[in-house]
């Protein structure tokens, strides 16, 4: 397994791992962002007619989750395929999936942790977005922490069911510890930032851009105990666009068109990541310098390099599932084809390639 993942790291450029990650936080509606009213005829491929459609898309407020989505909006890529996109901001993947199940959202972008719910049948993956480097276990050195082993007996914030929990498990395992050796506090990642700065907790399993804020505030007391990039020989951390199985069965054409726009956005993102970060800062009402310091949280070029290479993409999702098997989140292996729609990915890639 280790050799296989190292090969994948080279094949797909796993220098940085995404995304942003799922969390169980409450939802926050963002101002609706859309492409305007699309024409029924594509400006990208003359003569191609699309039935106009409006879709509701959930994202998380970080570069890994929102960058391809908002790039496709601003560059007019959704409009080219007849789609109007309305966006809603969420704290994490499980909450997004719950909103899709209730019919409030059509499509969501999720990080690594929430993929366990896809494996269990709650949602299906129809587009690979990127590999995440956003997750980290960080600590306040003023609390007497110098290494991961020093977490024993300390109070550590975690967001269960998300990549926060996954990265914490990896760090503890490497230090010879388990969850029973620490005092865990359940929080969403935004709450962790305030709690660690105020001294209410000793460490946190969080993700960018919260890590940027913590480093800026804690200064010399800021300590990183482990990130996704430390475990690329053991795991893959893909982030994806997903929907419910029911929505996929009824809206394959929309998923293909949406994915086609996202592929184009991923290419633009890789070539213009700092511009994308500045634009997204305005979209999210976030500090521009914080967003610019977050540009390393995803392997943007790796996502482009993987386009059309479905053997590599399949292997990434297989490696991801192995993480959930190893930590007991899921108990039985599930064929990746059961929850990853490679037929949609292929159609979208073919359409994208034909439009270039």
Description:
With 356 residues, this protein is of the alpha/beta class. It has 15 helices and eleven strands. The strands form two sheets. A six-stranded mixed beta sheet has the order 1-3-2-4-11-5, with helices on both faces. Helix 6 links the parallel strand 7 and strand 8. Helix 1 packs across helix 14 and helix 10 packs across helix 15. The protein is globular and about 65 Å long. The N terminus is likely disordered.
Concise overview:
The protein has helices at residues 2-12, 63-74, 77-80, 93-101, 115-119, 163-174, 189-198, 210-218, 245-250, 252-271, 273-284, 288-292, 300-305, 310-326, 342-355; strands at 27-28, 53-59, 83-90, 107-110, 124-131, 135-140, 155-158, 183-186, 203-207, 222-227, 238-243.
SS element count, helices: 15
How much of the residues is beta strand, in percent? 15-25%
Major β-sheet annotation = 6 strands, mixed
Tell me the overall shape: globular
Q: Please, what is the average pLDDT?
A: 86
Helix/strand order, N-terminal first: HEEHHEHEHEEEHEHEHEEHHHHHHH
Q: By helix and strand content, what is the structural category? A: alpha/beta
Keywords for this structure?
6-stranded mixed β-sheet, 11 strands, alpha/beta, single chain, 356 residues, 5-stranded mixed β-sheet, 17% strand, globular
Task: Note the topology.
Elements: H1 2-12, E1 27-28, E2 53-59, H2 63-74, H3 77-80, E3 83-90, H4 93-101, E4 107-110, H5 115-119, E5 124-131, E6 135-140, E7 155-158, H6 163-174, E8 183-186, H7 189-198, E9 203-207, H8 210-218, E10 222-227, E11 238-243, H9 245-250, H10 252-271, H11 273-284, H12 288-292, H13 300-305, H14 310-326, H15 342-355
Parallel strand pairs: 2-3, 2-4, 7-8, 7-9
Antiparallel strand pairs: 1-3, 4-11, 5-11, 6-9, 6-10
Helix pairs in contact: 1-14, 2-10, 2-11, 7-8, 10-15
């Amino acid at each position: 397994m280790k050799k296989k993942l190292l090969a994948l790291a080279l094949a797909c450029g796993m220098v940085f791992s995404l995304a942003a990650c799922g969390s169980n936080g409450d939802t926050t509606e963002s101002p609706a962002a859309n492409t305007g009213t699309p024409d029924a005829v594509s400006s990208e491929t003359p003569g191609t007619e699309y039935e106009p459609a409006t879709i509701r898309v959930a994202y998380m407020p970080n570069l890994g989750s929102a960058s391809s989505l908002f790039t496709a909006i601003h560059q007019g890529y959704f409009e080219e395929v007849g789609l109007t996109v309305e966006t809603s901001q969420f704290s994490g993947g499980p909450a997004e999936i719950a909103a899709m199940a209730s019919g409030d959202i059509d499509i969501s972008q999720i990080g690594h942790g929430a993929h366990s719910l896809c494996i269990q049948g709650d949602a299906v993956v129809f587009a690979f977005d990127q590999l995440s480097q956003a997750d980290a276990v960080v600590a306040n050195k003023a609390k007497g922490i110098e290494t991961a082993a020093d977490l024993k007996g300390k109070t550590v914030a975690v967001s269960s069911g998300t990549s926060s929990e996954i990265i914490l498990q990896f760090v503890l395992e490497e230090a010879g510890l388990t969850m029973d050796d620490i005092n865990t506090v359940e929080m969403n990642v935004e709450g962790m930032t305030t709690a660690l700065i105020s001294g209410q907790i000793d460490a946190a399993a969080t993700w960018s851009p919260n890590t940027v804020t913590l480093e800026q505030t804690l200064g010399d007391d800021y300590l990183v105990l482990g990130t996704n990039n430390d475990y690329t020989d053991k795991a893959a951390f893909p982030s994806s666009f997903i929907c419910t199985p029911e929505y996929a069965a009824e809206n394959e054409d929309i998923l293909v068109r949406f994915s086609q726009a996202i592929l184009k956005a991923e290419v633009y993102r890789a070539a213009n990541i700092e511009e994308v970060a500045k634009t997204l800062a305005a979209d999210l009402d976030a500090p521009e310098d914080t967003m610019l310091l977050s540009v390393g949280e995803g392997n943007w070029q790796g996502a482009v390099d993987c386009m059309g290479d479905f053997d590599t993409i399949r292997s990434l999702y297989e490696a991801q599932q192995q993480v959930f098997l190893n930590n007991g989140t899921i108990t039985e292996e599930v064929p990746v084809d059961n929850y990853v729609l490679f037929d949609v990915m292929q159609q979208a890639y073919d359409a994208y390639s034909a439009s270039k």
